[in-house]
Specification:
Layout (H helix, E strand, L loop, with lengths): L1 H71 L2 H21 L1
Helix pairs in contact: 1-2
Length: 96
């Protein structure tokens, strides 16, 4: 009786092990895909942060230029330049 119980448990264990490696492989693949997606998202976030920092710095630099140009040029000419610089920023953003 005891041997039959052991043999029954052994066959159950063996049959469970036949399916278990595939299940472990699937889990590993899913984890690998999740890690890859996370790395890709982190990379995208990093690019977005760099772009925002560059754009803020660029705007700040242009703002200083605006103040400097206002002292030298007329106000109407200044408005035209602001519009042109704004379009350049917009195109630069679309390109990235």
């Amino acid at each position: 009786m005891f041997f039959l119980l052991l043999r029954g448990q052994y066959y159950k264990y063996k049959s469970n092990n036949k399916h278990r490696p595939q299940y472990q492989q699937q889990q590993q693949q899913q984890q690998h895909q999740q890690q890859h997606q996370q790395q890709h998202q982190q990379h995208q976030q990093h690019q977005q942060q760099q772009h925002q920092q560059q754009r803020q710095h660029h705007q700040h630099h242009q703002h200083q230029q605006h103040q400097h140009q206002q002292q030298q040029h007329q106000h109407q000419h200044q408005q035209q330049q602001q519009q042109q610089q704004h379009q350049q920023q917009h195109q630069h953003h679309q390109h990235q």
